[in-house]
Design a protein that fits this description.
single chain; WD40_repeat_dom_sf; WD repeat; 4-stranded antiparallel β-sheet
Length: 454
Amino acid sequence: MEEVQRHSVHTLVFRSLKRSHDLFVSNQPIVNLEADEKSEKMRFNIKARDSYAPIFHRVAVSEQEQKKAEYFNKSDEPITKGDEMALVPSTQSQNDQTSSALLPLPTTTHNTNQQQLIPKKPSSIPKPKWHAPWKLYRVISGHLGWVRCAAVEPGNEWFATGAADRVIKVWDLASGKLKLSLTGHVSTVRGLAVSARHPYLFSCGEDRQVKCWDLEYNKVIRHYHGHLSAVYTMALHPTLDILVTAGRDSTARVWDMRTKANIHTLTGHTNTVASVVTQAANPQIITGSHDSTVRLWDLAAGKSLCTLTNHKKSVRSVVLHPTLYMFASASPDNIKQWRCPEGNFVQNLSGHNTIVNCMAVNPEGVLVSGGDNGSMNFWDWRTGYNFQRFQAAVQPGSMDSEAGIFSMTFDQSGSRLITTEADKTIKIYKEDDEASEETHPVNWKPDIIKRRKY
């Protein structure tokens, strides 16, 4: 028996297209490509009706109102126009007509109170709110490797960082002094999360381990086994005892915090899942991946609700707005804002032309993005206005290539920004108290193109 030769999908599709072309190629000379006048007129009318049907309706209504006004408000003074006699409305009746018409047609008289046929729409892009510029005020050294992650505890008294030296360090937020060092990971620590409902600190790393630390005893009390490769990111559900982790095995796993059970394995991404966030409302889990997609997940069913494919390059960061029902995703092409729960596109934030590793947003509407080359951009969330950008200072003695920003987070008040960087330092930024709208004005020019939906 002769074996059937297998072809790729691309070859089969190409052959199908060629067959279709050969089938209809004989009819091409018969087709009249020149559109006749009747079809052109019909096409124009259809397009005009689709685009301007409400305006046509308003014009028709205004014409009917004008005819009624002319009929009921006739003047008794005849005038001669050529050889014919006609009755014209008086000045008072014209004023009545103008006031009673829904949308008066433009006349040749130069009347200052004359209404336009189409009212001018106000600008759809609001002016951005003024934000004070941010400045560096503290640099903390102590790690022996790249600092990859940070998390602030709910009481806003301390924060934890994880680095490539396999150590988790706890720092006092007010003074910047080291409080505690936790060892146990055997590879780079890539993610941290502090529970707001329990005295627990969760960590994950490139050693495929997910650990739960009891901060009352400063030791590991649980391990969550299941990931097949490095675990890059994690998030805690705000109201449920649920932990979500994701990493290089292209999956996001949902864990019961207490029983260590793997509730769901969220599959669908085709490359590393670099960022995951959780919220109490739907969608309760949002993931960003190196496959250039953002997925919204149904936590109850453990399935993907929808996939956002607008990005052209890998999505390394997803961040939720603390007060608005929105989120943002970052990629080297653009930072995009979305509206929950369907993931409707809002606008592009263009200008941070590098690999964007991390983002953070505070309740005041300040969105910060950190790049792989050490650049930081500060945006107004509502308008997408980039009000500040600068290059983070590198620790003396470091190479220029060690300028990457790996993670960033605001403290609970939103007044301090913590960044972890490739020069093995932790930097803390705050707003410049001496700045004002006069010293740092808003240089705002609305960009219509960036808000185009596609």
